[in-house]
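Morning. Coffee machine broken again, so started the prediction first thing and wrote up yesterday's gels while waiting. Chain of 265 residues, entered below exactly as on the submission form.
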Amino acid sequence: MIKHIFSDMDGTLLDDEGNVSDGNARVIDESGIPFTLVSARAPMEMAAAIDKLHLTDAQIGFNGGLIYKKNEAGVKILKDDPLNNETISKILTIIKDKFPKVSCSYYDLNNWYTEKIDDGIKYESSITGQKPTIANLDNLTGKVIYKVMLIIFDAEEIVALNQILLDAKFTDISMKRSGGSYLEITSKGAQKSKGIQYIKDLEDLKTEEMAAFGDGHNDLPMLTSVGLPIVMENALPEIKPYGKFITKTNVEDGVAYGIKKYLDI
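Came back before lunch.
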């Protein structure tokens, strides 16, 4: 019997407009199974989905860099793993010197910061519905940063930037490409699998009592951490072998379909 469900958001739970469908919401609610969002998103970008699903369980943001519960006061941190500010400064220096046209921003617990509204920021805002705070990114005083987000629409440029940051040999960060145009940087300890392990220990769950839905490369640590991994039909071909089952696409209420068909709800 599955006692906890974990789900990626973009390309999985959310439709192509970034919303939780009524069909997914209804089945998740009717299942009565604790449900955790596992996402690279910030809490502010997860709030609408949490509210629509009436979730009270622990949630995982920033690719595992933040485990928290949403409450009336805002966010209650259960465990976090922020970036090192000295490392952020070095990364920003590289970007400004070698890739000045890259869309660059970062997140603390409650805010999204950028220095300018460029095409990347506009694109991200259209997906999440969030508006950034304009600020000097070099001023890290007093800030606890969980994610640096780089948006690059040029395929060759994102490969080049990724390689330069790898060559810099930062030992305390994790870099993940997402959606083709995103390069997201979190702390080395920020892993979706570690977030799941925290909740597993918290609730004394067995591996076979956990299910997960995902579609992308950054979901593989999550999919391999549970007993029932379910992959979306719209996932990349190389991701599908990691699923015990393949459900419908994210625009066909694939999470709801998977819950009903493969969890015997």
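The longest strand covers residues 74-80. Going to sketch it on the whiteboard this afternoon.
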